[in-house]
Amino acid sequence: MTILPGDELAAEQVAGERTGGGHAGRIASRLLKTLFSLLVTLFGLVLVTFAIARLVPIDPVLAVVGERATAAQYAAARTELGLDQPIPVQFVRYLGEVAQGDFGHSVTTSQPVLDDVLRVFPATIELATLATLLGVLLGVPAGVLGAVNQGRWPDHILRVVGLLGYSMPVFWLGLVALLFFYGHLGWTGGPGRLDVAFELSYEFDVTPRTGSILVDSALSGAWDVFRNALSHLVLPVAVLAAYSMAYISRMTRSFMLEQLGQEYVTTARVKGVSERRVVWVHALGNAAVPLITVIALSYAALLEGSVLTETVFAWPGLGLYITQALFAADLNAVLGGTLVIGCAFILLNILSDLVYTMVDPRAR
C-alpha cells in the first residue's frame, strides 16, 4: 500500500497525540497512586497515635480536672471529652478533628495544640536544617575520600570517626560539649536561644517573620542579636551534625564504591579523563541520585530525633515541647506534636521522590 506524503504526516500527528496522551495518563496515574499512598499513610499515622493515646497509662480526664476533682466532675469531663463513647466512635471523632487541624487544647499552656506547635516548630526546623547542611558539607566529601582511599589509612580514620559520631549518645555528647566549650572555655553560648541580656533586645528590635531567630534578626538588622543567637546554635547544631555527618558519609562511601566499580568509570579512565573529573563528576553524579533520599531521611530523623538535644540545650523547639508535655501528662500536646513530625517525615519522603525523578531521567 502506498502512503502519500499527506497521509504520512497525518499518521505522525496521530502517533504523537497517542504518545502524549499516554504520557499524560501515566503522570495522572502516578499522581493518583501517590495521593492514595499519602492518604493511607496519614490514616495509619492517625490510627497509631490514637492507639497510643488509649494504651499509655495516662488518664486524660485527670490531666484536665486534677486529682482532687469529685466523681461528678470527673464524669462530666469524661463525657465532654467523648471518652464514654465506644472506641470506634472515639476514633471517628478523633479522625474528623485531626482532618480539620484540631488537635485539642494543651493542658499546660491552655492554648490550642496547633498554635503551640506552629510557635515552637520553627526553632526545631532551624536546628535540624543547619545540622543537615553541615552534615552534608562534611559527610559527602568524607564519604568520597573514604571510597577513593578504600583500605588505606584515610579510609580507616574516617570510618572510625563516623562510627563514633553514629554510636555516641546524643545527650552525653551534648552534656560534654556544654561542660567543656561553654562551662570551661566560654567559647560558645549556653542553653536557650539567647542570653538573658539579649531577650529584651530581641522583643523590641526583631520583627518575627519566619520563626527562625537567625533569619528574623538578620532581616531586622539586629546583628548583635544575630551573633548571640549564632553562638547559642553552635553546640546543638554541632552535636546533631555529628550524627548526620556519620550517617551521610557512610552511605556516600557505599554508593561511591559501587559507582567506582562500574564499567563507565573504567572507560572514562582509559579515555584519559582526569581522576578528579571521574570521581567528582561522573561517579558522584550517579551516586547523588540515591544520596538525595539518604539526605532527606537524615533531615527527617533530625526533626523527630532532636528531642534529647533540645532537652539538654533547653532549646524551645518541638522536641522540648513534647518532652515537657509528656512529663505533665498533656496527652493532646504529645499526640499533636507526634502527628506533625510524622507528617513532616511523609512530606520529606514525597519531596525526595520528586527530586529523585528530576535528577535521574530514568526514574520518570
Q: What do you see in this structure?
A:
The chain has helices spanning 5-55, 60-65, 71-80, 87-99, 113-148, 153-167, 170-184, 196-205, 213-219, 223-260, 263-270, 275-305, 307-312, 318-327, 331-359. The chain is an all-alpha fold and 364 residues long. It has two domains: 15-99; 113-363, MetI-like fold (Orthogonal Bundle). The chain crosses the membrane at residues 35-56, 127-148, 160-182, 229-248, 279-301, 321-348. Its main location: membrane.
What is the element layout, followed by pairings?
Elements (H helix, E strand, L loop, with lengths): L4 H51 L4 H6 L5 H10 L6 H13 L13 H36 L4 H15 L2 H15 L11 H10 L7 H7 L3 H38 L2 H8 L4 H31 L1 H6 L5 H10 L3 H29 L5
Distance linking N and C termini: 38 Å
Can you count the beta strands? 0
The CATH superfamily of the largest domain appears as MetI-like
Q: List low-confidence stretches.
A: 1-12, 14-19
What name does CATH use for the topology of the largest domain?
MetI-like fold
Outline type: globular
Number of helices, where a helix is a run of at least 4 consecutive DSSP H or I residues: 15
Supply the CATH architecture of the largest domain. Orthogonal Bundle
Rg to the nearest angstrom?
27 Å
What is the N-to-C order of secondary-structure elements (H for helix, E for strand)?
A: HHHHHHHHHHHHHHH
Give the biggest sheet. Answer: none
By secondary-structure content and strand pairing, the structural class works out as mainly alpha
Proportion in β-strands:
under 5%
Overall average residue pLDDT: 82
Helix content: over 70%
CATH secondary-structure class of the largest domain? Mainly Alpha
**How many domains?**
2
